[in-house]
Design a protein that fits this description.
single chain, 226 residues, alpha/beta, two-stranded parallel ribbon, 8 helices, 8 strands, 15% strand, globular
Amino acid sequence: LLMVHSDERLLPLNKTFSREGDIDIPVVYSGFITRKPDPDRIAALKGQLGLSDETKLIVANAGGGRSGFPLLKPVIQACRQLGSKINFHLEVFSGPFMEEAEYGELEATADDRIVVRRFSDVFLEYLALADLSVSLAGYNTCMNLLVTGVPSLVLPYTRQREQPLRVDALTDYLPLHAMAPSDLAPERLMALISTMLDKSRLLTRVPFNLDGAETAAEYVLQWAGG
């Protein structure tokens, strides 16, 4: 049995593997492996943040953090420059593996509207409350965007096929804009943030299987004769 952790309606195996026809064992799709936001955690976080209805919550994250500094620093700078035009609160998550010097430089920018953290165990709930997400385009991040439907700016890693291919497929289903490195220039990034803050969250469920863990377990039990 070959189990593919994807939904073939979005990204079938033959998009990235040309010799699918040579596989002589069953090929099945588990769907995407995701976690759903917890309503109780969302409510608790909303109370903890204490933001007014007029405040735009922006969440910026860099996955594990090793390559996130070139994204997060411009985002902080752009939001700071937009501060006179937009009532915002920015939560920045560097990821646990960002270099200490880079994290320290980001942390030094914090003020009453900009919070810099390594990570959070309620990150998905932050996205469920956010008006905008700005991020890289790794698998886990894109799954979070699918689950929460938050308007998003994403910066795919273009030196391999996986992230651009995934982001290109997602743009038909989510309020998502794929950025190029040139979009990190201050004026361009400010314009993109302003535009995406006017977008609405996707409130309907995307037409894909997001219960990959449960489906995978069912396939394993069937395969094992259970």
